[in-house]
Records
---
Amino acid sequence: MKKIKKLFALLLCLVMAATLLPSSVLADEDEPELIDYGKYSKIEWGVYSDGTLVVVGDSISGTIKEPWSKYKDSITSIYLDVALGIPANFFHDFPNLEFVYISESVNNINLPNFTGCPNIYEYYVEEENPYYASDNFGVLLTKDMKTVVKAPTRITVYLVSETVKTIKPGAFAGCSNLMYLIFAGDFVIFSDDSFTGVTATGYYYAKYSRWESIYDFPLTTADITWYGILDEGLLGENLGWMLLTEGILHISGSGAIPDYAAEGDGASPFAGNEYIGYISLQGEITHIGKNAFNDCPNLSTLFFNNPDAPAMTDSFKNVRAVGLYPSTWKDTPKDHGGDILWVKYDAETGELLGTGIPGDVNVDGEISNADLILVARYVVNLIEEDSFQHEFVAAFGDMDGDEAIGNTDIITVARRIVGLD
């Protein structure tokens, strides 16, 4: 609200400037100084000392000009009050623009606009505007909330509401910080260039079968990895979980995963689940309760992305898996109850760090015939490329430093096993 009041004050300053009265006389001492003012087509504009560009008037027509172009690098916010439409490409290449305020009078923003603006955090639309609206994520939508028009380029996560049916071309173009898209409703129509330049993970509810069509027409201008949500729920007050297609269980938030009974009414909703193959735990999870993930026969990978190791007590009984943990952990849990091979990764780069023992490609803390066999199988292409075994050999099997895994690496591992190197 403070920002809104400020912009109304700026608009008032512009009106007073149009009457040729000095803004330094008419404005309060706290108001920013009007440093330039002009008229173009049927609009008036002003640039202020705090980096705000105010544009008001009836319409913009004729050859597109940017009379404020020399101020582009310093403009951080734009106030728009142009009643009869904004031409395509009228606003572009503001490197430090963060905030766009759209008044109730604006009725048509032709796309593309606001391209080349990598630092926008929010589009805000006055509630009285009959044509446009904005949501809590700072995204610009049509008034009926059915069409996403433009997302701020600094957006990182977006929950697409059930009302949205269409995403316009270019709506998320340039949103290089976007990591997660979550679609709350049925299939949404978008084009190949709606997400140009985006690398993100997209979640949809698998109960809406029309979402399956996204796999038939992969995007060529963006890299979005799609997962269907099969089920979801809460674990305590601040932890949520989603069971995704591909056998992925995603748990995020803060706090403790509770203890469960070994069986019966108080048993864990995940224990004995044959579908779960990968568990991702993210946030600040402090404890993984007893019997939480017991007897999951196909669980092969645990990925921890929380800064400190959670406490565990018989949480993974009868589970054999690889546990990937960040370099920020001081130690790995000892009482997890399962057969877990712990593998450290760099918390900043994601690079596997291994045990530091040359030739220990299976990361079990020693060099043995198992490592030799693994390297040999890798060389003759007998290991699946999407397996952790393949990733481990690729990361730790280059014994001679030639950036390739070959016969000389097999020989070097064999020599180390028998103590010749």
Note: Confidence is low (pLDDT under 50) at residues 1-27.
---
Amino acid sequence: MRTSKINIVSLGIMLIFCLFVFIFVYGCGSSPPSPSPTQKTWTIMMYACGDNDLENDIFYNVVQLQHVGSSDNINMVAQTDWWHHYGTAESMVTGEGVGRWYIVRNSDPTKIKSTLIETLPEINTGTAESVKDFVLWSIQHYPATHYMLIVGSHGSGWRTRRSIEAKGFGQDFTSDPSREALISLPDFKSILPSIYSALGNKKLDILAIDCCLNGAIEVAYQIKDYVDLLLASEETIPGSGYPWESIATDIVANPTWSGSTLATDIVNLYQTQYSGQEKTTLAAIDLSKITTVADRTKTLASLITANTLEANFRDLINQHTGQTYSIQRYHDVTFRDLWHMADNLISSWGSDPACADITIECATIKTAVEQAVILSKYTSGSTDIYSVANSHGLSIYLPTPQTTTYEAEYGDLDFSTYTGWGTFLQNFN
């Protein structure tokens, strides 16, 4: 009996020791790593910068994605930040913080019921670094062959009417009560090399800027080395933004679409949504063709200067009847359609033999724009004070003393540096 008791005790001690080892390795240490995520065809990343007076509209953009949800071939993820001034807080799990979501199908129109992956403390989502962190997180956790980044918020192209700085898009009222800070184009470009590296030295397939006035040559040129296709509007964008439910439906149904096919579909769906209701524009732009547009614009500026026609050019820019200018204008009257500018120069100066080289160059600008812009469409509303029917996908900065003072910060942009367009504009401003 004594021997039997000893064996039982020994066995018990051994079992306890084994249990201790198991707990130490798997309980006190880190959990066993989860399997690597499956690579899908597309990852759609929505950066919902709604900490501003667009929060209700941007909130609904996320809900629109949720009405379709991710699929076996498509990842949909979103980062959300809210102002909580329009009742959105009651619909949010994240409270005052920032949420990162994996979008799953749910038909609720009032709440985000997708999978909340991560909650961050309140941060300034109106910064380029915040965009970068979200995109890198998305690439790491939701790998795909193709990626589309959606940025939804306020925007004003390269500039903002509230402060004279080289700005772009994104606005966070909580972190910036002055409401003047936007993500500048130079700042946005500064994060793109990290994203390019994370993608294995590949360009982002599509950047969809769901913000006003970003369909500009200055925006396109700034990001051309890191993005294949740009979706953006020369004009303002209605509060409800892009038709994301229709877009998500189409990409889930057609996961093998190329970037250009998806971008074209988005332009068509956008036109369908607003046709006959509001004045809008949207274009899909091939950024591999943008350097040619810049080269032609650079030559045009040199030719006008060489012929001492800056004053004549200024007068052409200023021609208008009421709110309609001879060169297609937008909500920011210093933004004009580039193709239409070239077309107006041909019409106005084409009969003058002394301007033959200029009009020839304008024809090459029109061709270059047509080759870079895959598709551009516009809509009209019933109460428009000016038309956008002469929109062709890319605007350019054209201030005059009659519209607004030239802003020196324009010189910080890559397009201005490369083409000398800022220096050219200062000749008559």
Note: The chain is about 40% helix and 20% strand.
---
Amino acid sequence: MLPSVFVRLWSAQIISVTGSQLSQFAIPLLAASSLGANEVQMGFLAAMPWLPYLCIGLPAGVWVDRLPPKMVMVAMDMTRAVLLFFMGSMFVWHWGQLEWLYGLTFLLGVGNVFFELAAQIMLPQVLPASQLLEGNRRLQSSETLAAFAGPGLAGVVVAWVSAALLVFVDAVSYLFSAFLVSALPHRQSQAKAKRSVWHELLEGLAFTWTQPILRVLTLCTALVNVGRGMMMAVFVLFVTRDLRLEPQILALIVASSGLGSFLGAYFSAWLTTRVGLAKMMIAAVFLVAFGGMLLPFAAQMKFIWLMVFSLLLGRFLSGFAAVVFNINQVSWRQRLTPLELLGRVTATARFSFWGLASLGSVLGGWLALTWRIVPTLWLSAGLIFVAMLVLWRFLPLEYKE
């Protein structure tokens, strides 16, 4: 039985991630339909939420280690709500430009960096080590359930009202999240601001690099996210422009990824117990790569139903396997890392994961414009397959069995 304080944290996350799924569906759709964004511009837009991890991800870990996590989470929820209200107004009154959208999505990414780091620190403070895997599983389950339900709801709203409305709904969800987080008990961060930011930043980097398991997981996950960043940058254009499928079908395809993610979160503990931790993670990365290969394969289909089935299966498998891998690597990192270093180590991981994902998005947009979208999708899947080989080759032998 998980404590009630975790339930409040979990409830806040359920509300905010459900709203976020709506705006994540709406923003690229609005950029393509209302602002006429091309492949490179869509790549830059896809990179903007992840670019803050590359720009400020490492020092953010030091700062968050020095601050009360609850205060950081509430402040970031309120900030993101204001930014989204501004973004929604931009589209409703037709005065927005692509440059404004870049800036707003970048600032939303800054809020995500600080909020997620604070939440990672908060979780071991509200749960004992023996319940961390279950806590992460439940948090991931709610996020993936939102990823399943969100795009379907978004497709209905886009068909009957407006994509801009989804942005306002996300803004309101952050206000509800801030209210719930504010009810959490106040716990001061254990780290003390006695040394320079640079010294503490290097301490987090050094721990990640010298801990063999964390080093391998960080390298593997970084490669996976570069590949997925390339894919996500061009996927909306691939489906709506190249394959000429309707936005409602796009919503169904994205929802299949959410369904796979939800089932992955639900069965991750069961699968890991029976297969073994390292073997399960290697198999999961392989399935992410295989699912990615089914996306460009859909372009070869002559019948629409086969095309849609290939896209549905590809996104489903990738969503399922990515969550199984992510739950295990997050829980592993939390158990291996001392609490006073957790913010910096988590920041190092997210700098590697999401920072490089932003570069992957830009690379994917550029390759799609110069080399076409289908070869870019094949390349992104191949890169994830390389990540699986890295995990298999360099994971210490004692963790393979």
Note: The chain has a mean pLDDT of 83.
---
Amino acid sequence: MSVKGLSTGEISAHLAEVYDAQVSKQTISTITDKVLEGIAEWQNDRYLGLSSEPAGQPLESRSGT
């Protein structure tokens, strides 16, 4: 949701309204930071050709069955 330009406060309010979940702005910020770090690593790995996952192959067909 932060990618859509929502602030941590807006995300917190949305989670409270839709899911009746109380999540602090700090928790949302921490989670967002970790997700963005993971995305950056994934993009870098794929860019460098280090990914072990075949590009463009659906998850269902990766099991070899």
Note: The chain has a mean pLDDT of 80.
